[in-house]
Batch of 4 targets.
Target 1
Amino acid sequence: MLIAENQPLAPLTTFGIGGPARWFVEATTEGEIVEAVSWAHSRDIPLFILGGGSNLLVSDDGFDGLVVRIALAGMAVENLDGEPGSRIYRCGAGENWDAFVERAAGDQCAGIECLAGIPGTVGGTPVQNVGAYGQEVASTIVRVRAFDRGEGSFVEFSAEECHFAYRRSRFNSNDRGRFVVTRVDFRLTPNAVPTLRYADVRHAFAPGSSPTLREVAAAVRRIRQSKGMLLVDGDPDCRSAGSFFKNPVVSASLAEHIAASTAKELPRYPAGPGPEHAGKVKLPAAWLIEQAGFGKGYTRGAAAISTRHTLALVNRAGATSEEILSLANEIRAAIESRFAISLEIEPILVGFKSNVGFTSNS
């Protein structure tokens, strides 16, 4: 295990923001993960697990501890005996997510084609329960292998044991920071039709057509690019962490009150299954932001709202983490004042030493 010192973190993130890691190691095996965790524990220093760097904001001061970048590669495919309608893909946590989506679509295996173009690695997808355009990884994950930092041993969780919910799992809620994901097993469906649940995806094809999984994945990437949500060299709207705010889940009565207070129709969606969502609906954060007076391209210093998607905050040129959080706080305060909704942010906050006033995944 080779440990580097004062490793710049900004180039390892899609935001391109943040100071260095005091210590840094790239783990390519499970053994190196165990060794790195032990090294940090024996010295009583903070530890942060880094994947693709696509869903985090690093402090301008950096991270005063050990950053372990997960680079476990490998993918095995298994056809299940007696289950011709299923195929298992066992993927190392360091595998590129979009490359896996393309591989599955090329194999004519359905289940994740609408998740094309999402940056990051396989290991980050169960943590956040990544979802887009009518699909979530929770519907395809059958097993997650992880290192339990508390017990010092490897464990495997079924999908049910991961406690998946909207943008949540046990890994970013009750057990936050305890487990290091090393492998994810997905159950996909061979020779199945793609998911065309979202209007944006349906409208990408002629009525009555039957697009292939690869065609749907390519269409999703084009849609994401049109919204600045696809990593493209030279595109300033790409220097972001994707959607900065989660779509809030609120009571149906609050949604009705908001609808009555605005002249525009309020879009709303089912909050999700389960008794905890009874009497609740999900509202689009982008709509709330726009109604509060923040349009695409709104700028504060070098931090801005994307010119193509209201939900993404971007680093225009040399933005600091403090500038990003200042803009986010301005937006959140306006939403809370007008709609009595406290927006929750999606990115993980890394290296911040003080309470920055946000509820996030870290």
Target 2
Amino acid sequence: MEQEYKVDTKRIYDTGMSNGGFMSGRLACDLSNRIAAVAIVAASLSENTAATCHPVKPVSVMIIQGSDDPLVPLEGGTLRRGGSGGSVLSHQAAVQKFVELNRCNSQPKEEHLADRANDGTTVDAEWYASCADGTQVHGYVVNGGGHTWPSEMPYLPAAMIGKPTHNLDASELIWRFFSEHHR
């Protein structure tokens, strides 16, 4: 890509949902010298990735996960419904892993977003802003939310993947997060 297109190598980001989210976490661990920030949606960190995660440089990380995700349990453990059966960290453990790796101030700023969209979901957010090299770690739990991309129409019936939230626009939130971070 860099040979074909003009790429600002100080602003390389990655985001993904579900398997793509797990890949984003892996890139934060393995390509920290190239990646400025990642956003993980409807995923966490696999226990294997977490055990071998030793980034060369701090990477800003955002993790968004639904409390009622039927595939990736918020509390961690074994992936559900036809997954590989791999084990994952809880949402909180994944956030804390990056807080420790980025040497963040241990006291986050917290906010609760009410159900303004009247869709039965709320959002709890925590931000760690005082981290090494100006990085940040943000965690969002969509209370009542499923295995979905916040603010988008669901790709399968709610009975299979849970409810989406419209109280948070993930695409806008992630873009703002990325635009604030560079290598």
Target 3
Amino acid sequence: MILVVGSTGFLGSEICRRLTSQGKAVRGLVRATSNPERVTALEAWGAETVLGDLRDPVSLRNACRGVSTVISSATAVFSTQPGDSISTVDHQGQLNLVQAAQAEGVKHFIYISFSKNCDPGPNSSPLTLAKREVEKAVQANGMAYTILRPCFLTEVVFNPMAGFDFPNAKATIYGDGHSRMSYISLGDVAQFASESVSNPAASGQIIELCGPAPLSALEAVRIFERLSGKSYELQFVPTAALNAQRQAATDPLQQSMATIFYWLAQGFEVDNSLAREVFSFPLSSVEDYARKVLTLG
């Protein structure tokens, strides 16, 4: 049995879909307040659901009972649930889960973390600090582990909610738009996670994940312009303004989100040589995503 924590989230639900399509026994952790449509979808795919909450250690022990592998993609970053925060979900909640998994004899813990390029330092954030502490707990608990560190998700960055309004041919560019970033598709992260369950080469590894090639924001705009036949209206947010926003933020979630946009402006490229060594499936590009959302096939 595989327990997926974050099973009603965008990434967690895709992990569940892929695992159940492979005939794997999957249990999704859900809350009484979870989106009922997403819970129904999990059950329609053949997943079992169990009520629980990262803030409730007793419920986590129950959810982990009889489970061989835990996959956790839960985060407060995109949550609208009351009481969710970096502290309650990404930090203490995940530590509660690691402890529950260890206590119930789980053999393999697969943790979705964040790129090493966002390591603690002057440009760190509460989210990064939480994830690194959870990584240490995952490595120290005696279970086999796989830590996956994806870069920025294509579907999140090139989305109207993040300022990339492709339906209306408008885009907010963070920084000057020339810095390259190693974006990765959500589907590929889900595939890495699902394949880690039965791939012995993934056990005991911390694996940096990214897409097929780094890309700048302006290069991405040109892809969308070429495929749509439209010229995009661009608005630039200077790096200095993003840094000021990051320094002024007081709430941990606001600080973390501001830092994410700062990193988008700065850009960085990821060395995914270990991922290429351990896994062999083809990766999706930003152009693949653009074709999909522009309904070009």
Target 4
Amino acid sequence: MISIAGDTHTHTLACDHAYSTVMENVSQAKKLGHSFLCMTEHGPAMPGGPSRIYFATLWNLPRVIDGVTIIKGAELNILDYEGTVDLPDALIERLEWVIASYHPPCLATGTKADHTRGWINIAQNPNIHVIGHCGRDWFEFEHLPALRAFKETGKIVEINAHSMSYSGHVANCRNIAVLCAELSIPIVVCSDAHLSTQVGEITAAAKMLEEINFPRELILNADHDRFLATLKRTSNGLIDD
């Protein structure tokens, strides 16, 4: 079964629809034997999300807590179909791992063409590293044109296990994973944990990837060294060892 060296998408009670502390999430990561944990709180446009000051002061956290390396990131909210997100570039550039996602509380759904155009525009932003839970069918899009844009711009596609708890999203997640394999687009597999006990819980996603024989070498967070090499690129020089 596919396993991961660390979870690339987690939340804490800095957002009011998540329920665990940093230390509780770290404790779970350590229990699982993970070497790193990405902290990716929702951007400030999410109702109940942290303000800009949260992201500006993430550097108060130590690099390593109880043996687990802390990666300081964000899950930005996409605000329109032109590529706008909810933190300014000056803050985004100080983050090491930046996800961008569509969320219904932050943007009204448009047409399939709108959603596709939005992803292609997001792909052009060099400060965004990861395409967040695009398998969710709330923002249905044309998979192939968007994925080609992700490939051309070096984006990483997230296979989000939490998305697969919704039966309507499973077929989308599978089709996107198949296309990523065909196009040699790197992915990360994550929990999208909003509670510490969910950290590292990727069973549904791992099973799906096994079923389609997804290439292991394209799963960036399946290997610590592979993920570290990726971080050296995404962290704007903030991580160098």
